[in-house]
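notes to self, project folder thing:

trying the whole complex as one job this time. last attempt i did each chain seperately and stitching them together was a nightmare. two parts in total, labels are on each line so i dont mix them up again. if this works i'll redo the older ones the same way
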Amino acid sequence: MTPPDRYNATYKWLHWLLALGIVYAFGLGWVMTGMEGLTPAKLRYFSWHKWLGVTLFVLSVARIGWRWLSPPPELPATVSPLQRRAALWMHYALYFATLAVPISGYLFSLAAGFPVVYFGWIALPVLFGKTPALIEPLRLAHAWLSYAMAAGVLLHAVAALVHHFYYRDAVLTSMLPASKRRA
Amino acid sequence: MKFMIRSIALLAAAVLSASAATTQPVRVPPSTVTITATQMGVPVDAVFTKFHASINFDPAHLASANAQFTIDIASFDVGDAEYNREILKPAWLDAARFPTATFTSTSMKALSSTQIEATGKITIKGITHDVRFPVTVKDGGKTRSYDGVVRIRRTDFKVGTGEWQAVDVVADDVIIKVHAVTATDN
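result (full assembly):
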């Protein structure tokens, strides 16, 4: 079976939904943790951030499952072996982060005594109760995993732009909607 | 002689039954006062670590049973220092103006062999309302435990004013769970 030359529609939807969600969740996390005191807005942002995190976790599981089911397109022949390896490991690192960041946030929330109720409606499993000793380690884990993911996302985007504007290959366009496809 | 023994026995019984309903201090710990508020569908527990209370209870003399609780508002703990400070501010519990919340029972009646219904007055932020709630009583030899669940509406007590008055972020219903342990009378 020859690999496709472009990512299929499922890949694209999952990729761009995750991309949008990750940027939004990161921004929300940044803003809400900087808010002073206690306000309804702050509590809303925390809830939205958690709901978004749960959504992204589900999308990420789907994304990894899809990668396993449907082979991704081959990189252009012009890409060096070193870059191929770097791209592969970066993708694995990002997959890992899209799972690790929401999981660490979920555990952090549980440790702090705030179980997650998806959309204020579906109570998600309370794996353990309030655990003061775990609050700080999990807070740090969630924060640093998020920063690491942000750095990874940035590198990933820069690499895609370099491929498009410097190498002028089809790496970026293989993930863009079909209408943007160059003949 | 027989008469004297009977008299002493009666007297002893009278003394015992009178002393059966003495007021017992509630021991902290192991007693706890926990509140559960709901924030955007999420149940959040907090505790009051300091309170003093006394219970006068004899299952055979429920009419004279009574309970009195005084809770130190400043001892509120939701597990986060910043949130604790916020809750003690005027918008929420206003610990500076209203340092205590109280419950004073007015009557108790039996619901079953292990449950009673307590009626009384609860005062939070200087506002008093009548409450009625079930209490499960368990005898454990030298101690007796009382578990009561009180449901109140926070807005009835002006807990959460201004922008918090809307109940979409923090729900109106608040559950107060009391676990009180006292010594038994004998």
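what i see at first glance: Residues 22-183 of chain B form a domain with the Lipocalin fold (CATH 2.40.128.110).
need to look closer tmrw
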